[in-house]
Amino acid sequence: MNEVKRFLTRGPLLFDGAMTTYKENRPAKAVLGEYIEAGANAIKTDTFSISSWLGEDREAALDALKTSILEAKEAAVDDVFLFGEIGPGVESDDVFSLFQTQVDVFLAAGVHNFLFETMAAPDGLAAIAAYIKEKAPDSFVIVSFAISSIGESAQGYGMQALYDALVDSKADAIGFNCHSGPRHMVEHVKTLVRTGKPLYIAPNAGYPQVLGWRVRYGGNPDYFAAAMKEIREAGIELLGGCCGTTPAHIRQTRAMLDRLPAHIPYRNEPRKERVAGTRAENWRGKVFVELDPPKNDQIDGFLHASKAFQKAGADLITIADSPIGRPRADASLLACRLHRELGIRPLPHMTCRDRNLNAIKALLMGLSSEGVRQVLFVTGDPLPQDSKAEVKAVYNFNSRKLMRYARDMAELSQGLAIFGALDVNAVNFDKQLELALEKEANGAVGFLTQPVLSKRALDNLRQARKTLKGFLFAGIYPIVSHRNAVFLHNEIHGMDMDEKIIERYEGLNRSEGEALAQRVSKQVMKACAPYCDGFYLMTPFQRVALMEALIVEAKALCREKMEK
After folding, report:
1. Could you give the residue ranges of the DSSP H alpha helices within 205-340?
2. How far is CA 330 from the centre of its chain?
3. What is the enclosing helix (H) or strand (E) of 51?
4. Fewer CB within 10 A of the terminal residue: the chain, N end or C end?
5. pLDDT surpassing 70 at residue 388
């Protein structure tokens, strides 16, 4: 049995505290000695930043890694375990190779225990744990994720999702550290549904405050130790401190641990299964109709059109979120009104461009409370050039990461049906499929495509049907005039149109243009029908009567396909 595992059969393991926020200009050996004197029986090498340094100057980073290992080995004494600490790289890194490079140096230096700390995603961690176990079967491997006060990582993973992602890996323990103060970490621990695999918990001393040119952390040692007592009483086996913690915090925690029983079984609340909600619904045969929200607060026309579309057979009214980057009435508020007052099922679009994560989270909770449990996530059209001086884009996540976050939101009692956009007009459609597969992995149940008005778009839809598992809704945009066709073809991103379609509209008046729009749209729907589960109709210029006729055609095609 590994020595750390044997130790844990006798009692909890207490790690040191912060290095970076406490060390200042002193040698790491001296700082580690202070933590050992304070009562830590596990210490970490001062190597957290090597991952980010390797990409800048590999040779210098490896030299620093070897020096830090020697310092830590000199500081370690009998009955104190030494862990090689490995921090996160940047999101674009080949994380397994990044980790492997450091692991090999640690193993060559005789360090067999590892702490992967402050991670934001599970990428590469199961693989590197397996690699370590193959090279050093007697090792002890901890993987620890940084989670915020609201329980998610910087890449949008919830605490439970992170735990579940590694629970079957070769890692010996899973942990959470940093970004949360001790009281929030206590609350996180209470909500986690865990297995028998040991858990490592290392909160910050508090939250940072900028005083002049220096960053300081609140949270005195007594307060920290009191929270750690609750964490230990929940059965947590490995404890420590992150940013802002000092030897005084560890000393108080050690005194607290010595007053508690050596063995405390972990408490576990039964897993609360969330109601699947609309996520589990069969969406085949549905017809979505998009209606742009008004440019002002006059919504009578919007409500009238929505009722007309519902009467014609539309299953959902989709509401764009400030299309083309121009402000319009809020899609989520309109969705709630349609659902509450008219009984119409809405699909609000939600962009990442205009709201940060907190605002989006609040909106999703509000929508769910109103019974609106289907949302389409898009990154958002670029802002118009003439608005950029006054209006700034706001991004925490792109649409793919936002889907994962929404899928795992603990605050929702029912699962959301998450939809995404699919650009079938893209020249590099393989890349679009790659993104769509990531969206499916992150919780998307289906896709609404850009308008199909060319052979390339139809071919790409066919390819999507072969590749994707989710529901596909072919985008249908009825062109109503030659001017409309030319503008869309030349000025709207994501539109691709066969020249022959444009030519057919030359010289037509309004009624002739609408009649042609209906014929062309019906032809396109018939061509798309073998490769889609339903249709996504987009309303041009409030042409309600035209859309009513197309909804009837779309529903007939869906029924015909479902009956086969």
Report:
1. 221-233, 247-259, 300-312, 331-337
2. 23
3. helix 50-54
4. C
5. no
The residues, ordered by sequence, that sit 6+ positions from 276 with a Cβ below 8 Å of its Cβ are 414, 415
Distance CA 35, CA 282 (A): 58
pLDDT tens column, 318-372: 999 876 567 889 999 999 999 999 999 999 999 887 788 888 889 999 999 999 9
Number of residues that make up the chain? 564
Closest CA to 364 of 321, 325, 409: 409
Alpha-carbon gap, residue 86 to 48, rounded angstroms: 5
Q: Give the Cα separation of 468 and 284 in Å (integer).
A: 14
Task: For residue 302, give the DSSP letter.
Answer: H
Task: Give the separation between CA 372 and CA 416, rounded to whole angstroms.
Answer: 9
Q: Tokens representing 361? A: 């989270």
Residue 363: Cβ within 10 Å count: 18
Cα(475)–Cα(495) distance, integer angstroms: 11
- Helices (H) and strands (E) counted in the chain, each on its own, are 21, 18
Per-residue pLDDT band at 211 (split at 50, 70, 90): low
Determine contact, residues 255/225, Cβ cutoff 8 Å.
yes
In angstroms, rounded to a whole number, what is the distance separating the alpha carbons of residues 499 and 538? 21
Write out pLDDT tens, residues 530-556: 999 999 999 999 999 999 999 999 999
Question: What pairs with residue 116 in β-bridges?
Answer: 86, 143
Task: Give the whole-number percent of the chain exceeding pLDDT 70.
Answer: 93
CB-based contacts of 162, cutoff 8 Å, min separation 6? 122, 145, 147, 153, 174, 176
What is the three-class DSSP state of 223? helix
Q: Are 364 and 416 in contact (CB under 8 A)?
A: yes
- What gap in Å lies between CA 354 and CA 175, rounded to an integer? 33
Predicted TM-score (pTM) of the model is 0.81
Name beta bridge partners: 83: 44, 113
Edge to edge, what strands does the sheet with 199-202 contain?
A: 13-14, 238-239, 199-202, 173-177, 140-146, 113-119, 81-86, 42-44
Q: How far lies 511's CA from each of 340, 365, 477, 488, 503, in Å?
A: 36, 44, 17, 20, 17
